[in-house]
Each structure stands twice: as structure tokens, then as C-alpha cells.
Amino acid sequence: MKKVLWAFMLSLLPVIHLLHTHTSPVKGQVLPPLPKEEVAKISAMEFKSLLSDYYVMEVAQLFGGKKGNPSKAEIIWMAKALDLAAALDPYYTEPYYFAGNVIPWYGAVDHVIRILKKGLKFKKGDWRLPFYLGFIYYYFKKDPVTGAKYLAMATHSPSAPSYLPLLVARLYSEKGHYSAAIAYLEGLYRSAQDPKAKEMIKKRFQALIIMDRLEKLAQEYKRRYGALPKNPEDLVKVGMIKEVPRDPYGGKFYFKKDGTVWTTSSLREGGVPKGR
After folding, report:
1. Residue 60 CA, distance from chain mean position
2. Of the residues 29, 41, 164, 222, which has the fewest C-beta atoms closer than 10 A?
């Protein structure tokens, strides 16, 4: 029995070494180096799933511990860490879910596409991966042809929910700046099972509905008065809205020079800059 226990403890040493040679990206404010895929697989041995979990948690810790938007370097690091997590356990859903739903809103879109495409080989029955890819190509890459290919793949998946074909059709019928994203988030909300995930999606969904409405009102304001409004308060002054809507994330909505809407919160919890 002791021999078996010692063998088990020794087998854990490579994994423990990998974990302890990495400084937390939040506490140290320095992004730790990521091992090459081959090195990680050899070191982890039969504990690849454990190490995969570790990298997903590191990404969640870094993202959740940020105030404001993550930097370009942080987003790239998170994408690479999720890629490594998926390589260690290609059947694990979380790396694909985080990569497909969070990372593209801040950058590293091409890296996310590579992660999801690799995942298609292992998660063949999961409609969500081609759905994520379809939306990323459609919304972020501005490539509706490729987006349509992956969305069709998602709708034909045996696991696809019954509402998905109608949702995809609606996504392609929307012309507004945020309308397609709203349709996409509606699908995510329906499919999400984790209560925290549903709440996060719901909040972003609510914020984008407000932003979409403000953009449309800005264009109507321009048609009436010959110029775009300088701020949402201008809409109140002419009676187009009773009051400026509140950002669910606690920020303040504002108009960019081209009439598009953004918010000081950057659609993140705790993302309101000091002094705003």
C-alpha cells in the first residue's frame, strides 16, 4: 500500500512543479510564462485534466480580478492559456466556452478562432462551438459567408436547441450595430445552465439593448436636427427620452463622434474609471 501511495505522490511532482513555478497573474501583476504544449503534456502525465483546470482557473482569476478592460498582452496571455488548457484536455468544455464568449470582445480574435476550430475535432456533437465561430466571423471578422457556414453547422447539429434556426435567421436579418450581438446573447442566455453565467449574459444583454436604442435615437436626432447629439442628455432636452438610461454596470453612456454608443464601464463589473 505504501509503495502505491509513494508512486502516486511522485507522479504528482511534475504537476506541482508547474503550478509553483507560475506567479499568479493578478497578485504579481506579471504574466507568467506558459510552457509549450508538448512540455505540459509530458509533465502532467495522467493529470492533464487537473492541469487543464488550473489554467482555466488562472484565466478566470486574471479576468475577474481586473478593474477596467484587460490589456492586449493580458488578452493574448489568456487566449494562449485557454489554448493550452484545451490541448491538455480537448474534451473539456470550459476553455472553449471562455474563449468563445469572453476573449473576442477584447481582442485575440484569430487566436480564439484557432482554439475553436481545433475543438471541433473533439466536440463534434456540441452545437456551441460552431455557433461561437459563426458569430465571431459574422460580427468580429465581418465575414458573413464564413459565418453562415459555421452557423449552418450549428443548426444541423443533433444537440442544437429547437430555437436555434430562428435565432440564426434573426441574427442575419439584423442591421444595427448591436442588434446582431443582442440576438447572439439571447441564444447564449437560453442555453446557459450556470446561474452566474446566465446573470452575466443577462446584464450584457440589457446593456446592449439600451445602447442599440440610443444609437437609433441618435440617427433619428440627426434626421430631425441635422447633426448628431453630443451626449444622451441632448435626447432628453428635445423630448426623445424622459431620462438617460442607467448602465447596468454602473457606468455612463456616451456618444462617440460617429454616433455610436459606448459606456465608461466598458461593460465590465467594476470597470468604471476613477473620477468618472
Report:
1. 11
2. 29
Sequence-ordered list of residues with C-beta below 8 angstroms from that of 134, at least 6 positions apart, any chain: 147, 148, 149, 150, 151, 152, 153, 154, 168
First-to-last C-alpha distance (Å) of the chain: 63
Q: Looking at the structure, do residues 221 and 103 belong to the same domain, yes or no?
A: no
d(CA 209, CA 72): 27
50 falls within a domain: yes
* C-alpha distances in Å from residue 124, one per residue of 79, 93, 95, 116, 254: 22, 12, 16, 11, 42
Rounded-to-integer distance, Cα 42 and Cα 15, Å: 10
Could you tell me which of 32, 43, 114 has the C-alpha nearest to residue 78? 32
Q: Give the number of other Cβ atoms within 10 Å of residue 189's Cβ.
A: 16
E-strand ranges in the chain read 253-255, 261-263
**Distance (Å, rounded) from C-alpha 43 to C-alpha 36?**
11
The rounded distance, in Å, linking the Cα atoms of 145 and 122 is: 24
Q: Is residue 37 part of a domain?
A: yes
Give dist(CA 174, CA 68) in Å, integer.
Answer: 29
Integer Cα distance of 130 and 134 in angstroms: 6
Of 24, 39, 22, which is closest to residue 88 (Cα–Cα)?
A: 39
Task: Report yes or no on 137 lying in a domain.
Answer: no
Q: How many structural domains are present in the chain?
A: 2
Whose cell is 446593456? That residue is: 207
pLDDT tens digit sequence for 13-50? 444 444 444 444 544 457 878 888 888 888 777 888 88
**Which regions of the chain are under pLDDT 70?**
1-29, 66-68, 170, 172-177, 269-276
pLDDT score recorded for residue 174:
63
pLDDT of residue 230: 94
Instruction: Look at residue 139 and give its three-state secondary structure.
Output: helix
Residue written as grid cell 488550473: 54
